Amino acid sequence: MSKEWPLWEVFIRSQHGLAHKHVGSLHAPDAEMAINNARDVYTRRNEGVSIWVVRALDIVASSPADKDILFEPANSKVYRHPTFFPMPEEVKNL
Amino acid sequence: MKIDNKIKDAKINYLLRQGDNALILSQQLSQLCGKGPALEEDMALTNVALDLLGQTRMWYAYAAELEGLGRSEDDLAFLRDARQMRCCLLVEQPNGNYADTMMRQFFFDTWHYFFLKALVSSSDPRVAEIAEKSLKEVTYHLRRSGDLVVRLGDGSVESHAKAQAAADALWMYSGEMFIYDAVDTAMVELGVAPVADSLRADFLEHVAEIFAEATLNMPAADAWMQRGGKKGVHSERLGFILAEMQFLQRAYPGAQW
């Protein structure tokens, strides 16, 4: 068994934010301690109102090598952006 | 409202005891900054030290104000000798290994939590205010130190042995907070401070609960308890803690930075 504690990714929802944002990672032996550690390491300056922790191993990521194939084609298709439509005032947080 | 002088002195003394407890434990934890067993633990412990320092300031500010001699919070922290410090003996016990540090913290946090919880309904609004602010921090301290005592006690053979040794060695310092003297009693009579009996019962119940989960043997509740800290009778260790903490103000009086 490895002596290192497993790695966890930490997501914090800030006071005014609507979604949890990735803020960094840390080591902890289990979920409970990961939450405690996240509180101690990442919310010392009043950053958050809610914490998520996810085992880094459980995150599935796209491969950096696929960057061109995955994202390049969207580059030249400016008509996909909704900037050509005026948004009504009442629609918030879009 | 005119406060009787004797009562006033008792109250200042009482406030200093709370401030001194928080200050000395904070200083001890600060010495572990950069030496924690893991980065996350290191920061957590330092956070606790900072919380306690903030609480020290609130107690000292109020004590200095009542005293009315123009002494500042800094004067109270840096210019009093061991004989004038009123912290309980528990907080001056050495950091030792991590089980020692966490067991000391757990005993202190357990008392501190129930104490502050009762103090929230103090007849002195300023005391109640400090208690309410501190209680939020201390609730977390207790959750954390209890969690770590369980992990150490119910961990490996070695961590269990160290946690049990720490509990046995520190137990005799866990009773002083509940042994009331004339100052404490005067504060209870005024409704400023809570009575000791119910606090002690809550303390024992919580320690028993955590120790059961941690598979640790709880020392006897009626064991002999050390005392003296409240009166300024300390172990020689406090002198060393103060020597380091106060060095700058002693060597360069009034130095600012």
Explain the overall architecture:
The complex is a heterodimer of chains A (94) and B (257). Chain A has a single domain (7-84), classed as Phenylacetic acid degradation B (Ubiquitin-like (UB roll), Roll). Chain A has helices at residues 31-42, 67-71; strands spanning 7-14, 21-27, 48-55. Chain A is α+β, with helices and mostly antiparallel strands and 94 residues long. Chain A has a 3-stranded antiparallel β-sheet, with helices on one face. Chain A is built from 2 helices and 3 strands. In chain A, a hairpin with a 6-residue loop joins strand 1 (7-14) and strand 2. The mean pLDDT of chain A is 87. By secondary structure, chain B is mostly helical. Chain B is 66% helix and 0% strand. Chain B has helices at 5-30, 39-67, 73-78, 98-119, 125-153, 157-170, 182-190, 196-213, 236-251. In chain B, helix 4 (98-119) runs antiparallel to helix 8 (196-213). Classes of the chains: A alpha+beta (94), B mainly alpha (257). Chain A binds chain B through residues 5, 26-29, 32-33, 36-37, 39-41, 44, and chain B through 38-41, 43-44, 47, 140, 143-144, 147, 151.
TL;DR of this structure?
The complex is a heterodimer of chains A (94) and B (257). Chain A has 94 residues and is α+β, with helices and mostly antiparallel strands.
Number of strands of chain B: 0
Given the structure, what is the number of helices of chain A? 2
Mean pLDDT of chain B: 96
How far is the first residue's CA from the last residue's CA of chain B? 39 Å
Write the CATH homologous superfamily of chain B.
Ferritin, core subunit, four-helix bundle
Q: Tell me the series of helices and strands of chain B, N- to C-terminal.
A: HHHHHHHHH
- The global form of chain A is flat
Question: If you compute it from the alpha carbons, what radius of gyration of chain A comes out, rounded to the nearest whole angstrom?
Answer: 19 Å
pLDDT < 50 runs, ≥5 residues of chain B = none
Uncertain stretches of chain A: none
Which structural category do the helix and sheet elements of chain A fall into?
A: alpha+beta
Largest sheet of chain B: none
Helices of chain B, by number, come to 9
The CATH superfamily of chain A is Phenylacetic acid degradation B
Number of domains of chain B: 1
How are the strands ordered across the major sheet of chain A?
Answer: 2-1-3
The CATH class of chain A is identified as: Alpha Beta
Count every beta strand of chain A, where a strand is a DSSP E run of 2 or more residues.
3
